[in-house]
Amino acid sequence: MSSPPAPSPDRHPRTVLDHRIETAAGCSIEKLWRHREAGLLDAPHSALADAHRDLVRAERDVTFHRARLARLESGEFPVDQALLARIERTVDQLAHAIDERDTEQAKAAAALEPIEAAAPLQAPQQVPTKDFAALLAIAQGAKLHENLLTHRLAVVTPSRTRISYAQLQRLQASGLVDRDTSHPVHAGQPVTLTDASRAVLAAPLPAGPPGTTPSPQPASSRAPAHLRR
């Protein structure tokens, strides 16, 4: 059985720690990896970059075995004892990969904790009114869809707030939203808030360009309950 390819600094599966790492390090995962390769990091950040690489490799293994199991169960192969044996073997491999991933995740979290503890508290970003409204809409659930006929990309939200692809890219570049690229865009890629955007929504009053700052509102009317914990 072939092994999954080694992770690339330019393309790797997202992990549950990525947001925390990027917030604590003050840069993207890709830049953290590049700085590690260039020898520009101090010891704690170097340890974090190495631990994250190991976590990504373990996450890739989980994805590999999960996809292999899905293929075996897809109906592509004859249902016989040989198939059952392959499924059992793949389930065992997937379980092992999950254990390895959990171990590497714990190591990465341990490497992250001293960096988070040393990081100074930062005030929430100030965002324009339009972006603030977009974040509120995304908090209720959002997906990026591609029209199969026109190939135009658009973000769909329950409130039908208009969020263009360009605005989504800007929010993503600012670290305010994340997009699950493991889903195809024609089926809808989930768009979620980051810790930074939750801090923006929880701030007493959102700020925007001159003349665009919204009127003060009670906190209960600005952000959903799960963002005001």
Short description:
The protein has helices spanning 18-25, 29-37, 43-72, 81-118, 129-139, 165-173, 195-202, 219-222; strands at residues 142-146, 153-156, 163-164, 177-179, 189-193.
Structure description:
51% of the residues lie in helices and 8% in strands. It is an alpha+beta fold and 229 residues long. The N terminus and C terminus are likely disordered.
Q: Could you outline the blueprint of secondary structure elements for this entry?
A:
Elements: H1 18-25, H2 29-37, H3 43-72, H4 81-118, H5 129-139, E1 142-146, E2 153-156, E3 163-164, H6 165-173, E4 177-179, E5 189-193, H7 195-202, H8 219-222
Antiparallel strand pairs: 1-2, 1-5, 2-3, 4-5
Helix pairs in contact: 2-3, 3-4
* Strand residue percentage: 5-15%
Low-confidence stretches: 1-10, 206-229
Radius of gyration: 21 Å
Secondary structure tally: strands: 5
Task: Report helical residue fraction.
Answer: 40-55%
Strand neighbour order, sheet with most strands:
3-2-1-5-4
Specify the overall morphology.
flat
Mean pLDDT: 82
CA-to-CA gap between the ends?
Answer: 47 Å
Largest sheet: 5 strands, antiparallel
Helix run count? 8
Topology pattern, helix = H, strand = E: HHHHHEEEHEEHH
**Helix-strand makeup class:** alpha+beta
